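User: I'm writing a tutorial on reading structure tokens. Could you give me a worked example: one chain, its sequence, then its tokens, then a sentence or two explaining what the tokens reveal?
Assistant: Sure. Here is the example chain.
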Amino acid sequence: MQINKALSTFSLLVGGIFILTPSFVLAQDMPAAKPAAAPAAQPAAAPAAKPVAAPAAKPAAAPAAKPAAAPATKPAAAPTAKPATAPAAKPAAAPAAKPAAAPAAKPTEDKAKGTVTTEVTPKETLLERAKVAARAAAEKTKAAAKVAAEKTKAAAKVAAEKAKAAAKVVGEKSSEALKAAKEAGMKAVEAVKQRVGGDEAATPLTNTKTQGVPALAAKSAVPQVIFKTSHGDFVIELNPAKAPNTVKNFLGYVDSGYYSGTVFHRVISSFMIQGGGFNTEMSKKPTKAPIALESKAGLSNLRGTVAMARTSNPNSATSQFFVNVVNNRNLDSYGGGYAVFGKVISGMETIDKIRAVRTTTRSGHRDVPVENVVIKSAERL
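And here are its predicted structure tokens:
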């Protein structure tokens, strides 16, 4: 009985040792698969080999030393180390980093990528607003310009009507003045004719039909010449006291009938009208010898005065003359001056009518009237 109890006790001790050994090995470093293999092999070998020889010594020593060392140190250290390190590190690192970084960055990125076609960025919004404002400003400017144009058009129309009315009044007054001047000129011509002996006074001094010496004396004192043209008549009064040689030369051409059939071949409306040298075919007529210049006698080239035409040579005047239609005082000294020898005393409206004709270039000459302005005759009064 005692032997059986000893064997039972030994078996229990050996079983306890094998049961405790896997816990000790696991606590050291062994993997979890090998502790199941060790208890299955050793319990069968140990009870069969040593049942009688060493029941008292080994069961007392082995169970007392190893069960106390293994369960007391290692099982207590392993369970407390792993739960404290692993769960404490990961929950603190992962949840703290990702919620702060990902939710803050991705909503902006996702919004920028996902709403390109449905929403407008602040910059695009400002651009659209600027475009709308620009369009509105353009419409306002266009409307204002239209209103201003309408006002300008209306004002121009009113001004044109006023100008037209004023021109009409001025034209009527000018027409009346022209008519009065024409009547006065005709009266002056009649008076001159009566003074020098009637219609026959237009003939040269050698005409036997002249009525006596008083008429001749009147002619020699104030020589006057009437020009009859295709555009009307005019009368000039000569000044032999200031330009004796020029008047003598001019009357020589008048008395010979030289000017009949000649034309005013040069017309400049802002300057003068010139004639007495060309026929209707723009052929130059032969002349007498040129005369010396008489430009220092104190007569000025004013509107209505008559002067001799010439070339650049001061002493080259022959038959051509011109009537100043504006004041040309510069001709008093230009190139030595142009000799004034008379003035228009009647028929200035004829001069202005000739002045207004259209001109062209003919036979190498500029400012030639398109339609000939013919001098039908030039005779003394």
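What the tokens reveal: The radius of gyration is 71 Å. The beta strands are 224-229, 232-238, 262-268, 272-279, 305-308, 321-324, 340-346, 359-362, 365-369, 375-380.
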